[in-house]
Every structure is written in C-alpha cells, then in structure tokens.
Amino acid sequence: MIKPDPTSQPQRRIIQYFYVDGSFEFGFGLLCLLLAGYFYIETHVQGWLSAIVDVSLVLVMIGGGYLVNLLVRKLKERVTYPRTGYISYRQEKQPKRVRRAMISIVTGGLIAALATVLVAAPHRPNIAVMPIFSGILFGLVLAIIAWRTAIPRFYLLALLSAVVGIALSFSGLEDYPGLVAYYAATAVILLFTGACVLRSYLRKNPVPPREEEK
Fold it and tell me: Which among 108, 99, 133 has a CA at the least distance from the CA of 119?
C-alpha cells in the first residue's frame, strides 16, 4: 500500500492514478442519468407532487453521490487494485473538510439563486438558460480537473459539456426539457468515454498470474 506524502512534489501522478480506469466517468455518468430522470419527472408532475419533487433534489444529490461513490469504490476494488495496486490517499483534516463543504454549499446556493433569477426574469433572452448554465458550470469543473491532472481527455469533456449546453439552449427547448436533454447527453458522453478508458486500461494491465500459476 502506497501512502503519498502531500509535501512532496510533484503529486500529479498520484492524482492521475485515480482517473486511470474510467471509474470517474462511469460514476458521474450515472449521476447525470439520475439527474436526467429527476428533471424528466419534474416536467411531468404538478401541484403538491411538484413541490415534493423540488424538495427531493437534495436527497437525490446526496443519495446519488453516495451510490456513485460506492460504485466507484467497488469497481476499483475488483478491477483496478488487483492490476496496478492500491494507493492510500491522505485524508484531509476535519476543519479543512468542513470549510470546503461549506464553500461548496454556499457556492451551490448562489448558483441556484442566480439560475432562478435568470429563469424568472421578464426580459431575459429567448433561450433556455438552465442548459447553458449547467453546461458551462460542469465544463468549468472538468477543466479544473484537467488542469490539476494534466489529462487531456478532461479538456475535451469540458468543451463538449459547454457545446452541448449552448446548443440545447438555442434548440427551442424550455429550461427543464433542456436540462433533461443536457444531462442525458452528458451521461452518454461520460459513459462512452469511461468505457473507452476502461478498455484501454484493461488491455495495458492484464491481471497478474497468481503465485501457484507461475
């Protein structure tokens, strides 16, 4: 088991190892599918059911995040670690984790508030705001990952996210149908990319023979 020292530089290869098997794309692709299903339901319910669905978004994100994390961990345990080993990443200190979580919550709240204002604005442009907003935001996240890891495919995914969001905004779809289409398309792109990365990883890293087979 490798325990990286956070004070050593560079740490890029250690960070890259997390993304070597396509599990990140599989995990977030499935989360995007879940969000596509959520917004699809959102567009087809009314009244008190719509209010329940609105409130359940937080539960969907938390539950979906937990299931995605579980899936990624199982994939790595069964596929990645037997082939190329296990890296134990140093856990962040509790105050730092809490601070980062608070920043994420506040940022998410501000983004949601801004999106709501844009959707409700009486003189906004005649386009669907939410798909372009989601496409650019998710694209920025992927671009940051690409910058941190120096993995070129994340720059391409960031560009595709922005392009899909912009295209759907001008497609004539309304906000929620546009979100359904955006997350469904993004899920397909991510799952396809993850499958390609996993296939390449498996080809380059076959399971080592057991001791009794040598």
Answer: 133
Structural contact between residues 161 and 139, judged by C-beta atoms closer than 8 angstroms: yes
- CB contact set of 43 (below 8 Å; sequence gap of 6+): 176, 177, 180
Asked whether 169 and 129 are in contact (CB, 8 A), the reply is: yes
Pairwise CA distance, residues 117 & 129, whole Å: 10
Read off the DSSP letter of residue 211: G
How far is it, in rounded angstroms, from Cα 67 to Cα 58?
14
Give pLDDT, residue 4.
44
- Which amino acid makes up residue 156? L
Instruction: Assess contact for 82 and 207: CB atoms under 8 A.
Output: yes
Model pTM score: 0.79
The whole-angstrom separation of Cα 102 and Cα 36 is 26
87 touches 4 (CB < 8 A): yes
Going by C-beta distance under 8 Å and a sequence separation of 6 or more, which residues neighbour residue 142?
154, 155, 157, 158, 161
Residues 173 and 150: their CA atoms lie apart, in Å, by 35
51-65, 175-189, 194-208: the lowest-pLDDT one: 51-65
pLDDT band, residue 127 (cuts 50/70/90): confident
Please report which helix (H) or strand (E) contains residue 157, including its range: helix 152-169
Task: Over range 22-30, report the average pLDDT.
Answer: 92
Q: Supply 122's token pair.
A: 């009486």
